[in-house]
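Standup notes
- DV: blocked on the single-chain target, sequence here:
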Amino acid sequence: MKTIKNTASLIFIIFLFACSQIENPLKNKQEGTCGDETQPIPIRKILIEDYTGHRCPNCPEAARILEGIHDDYCDHIIPIAVHVSFFAEPHNPDFPEDFRTETGNELNDFYGVSSQGLPGGLINRKEFNGNLVLGRDTWRSAVDAIYDINPDINIVIESSYNETGHTINSTVTLEFLKDISESLNLGLYVTEDSIIAPQQDGSEYVEKYLHRHMLRKGVNGAFGKKILNSATKGSTFEKTFTIPVDANWNIAHCELVAFISKHSTNEIIQAESEPVNNSN
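- DV (later): unblocked, structure below
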């Protein structure tokens, strides 16, 4: 009888575990590869802001850590490199570019990232162990603490590039997966990947460094704009944007990053990214 009871208990535990796996919207590595976008359940996506600068010798190591997190957590991670402070100032002839943005400067001033030393990061603009600004060695733990929380919202980004008018036309659609009883902001950024430009990497000056996920513009401000006071499960919200394209951007490498945050605290509760559709 004892053996039968133990066997029944084991089957029950396995059943519960299997059910939790089916219902869990995570997208983990399977057989050495990340899960794909075809799974039917939306996943929580986490915005990691890496505050950096081309004259910051320790910042490339932080970028490598971020890429490692991106590789391991797959589509859960949306990385952005935010160039700020005197580390990002142009300095001829070795560092002629100025990758700072009005949005990045506002965020840096608000959170005081560079005053604590670069590199520094924000993970969904949410406190971890009592801190908002996190050192690079803490980023993975902060991600691990929240990536398996089921999302409240699913975000879909659609876009097209108007070559004649040099504008990006985008529609961001929100689907609410749960009732939400607080005010929300919607923010939209433009980022650009694979920018080749100088970077100080430790003691080495790298003339042709590969800059990833660089913030180019906050379309509707650093913190987005308030859109709703509350939302009910199953409801949707749609917002369209027309974005002027800067002559320095390579549209083929640009992405749109949308995020939803709590209006009261700026904590990000869901994010999404999508390459700009420039096939028109």
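- Follow-up: The first helix runs from residue 2 to 23.
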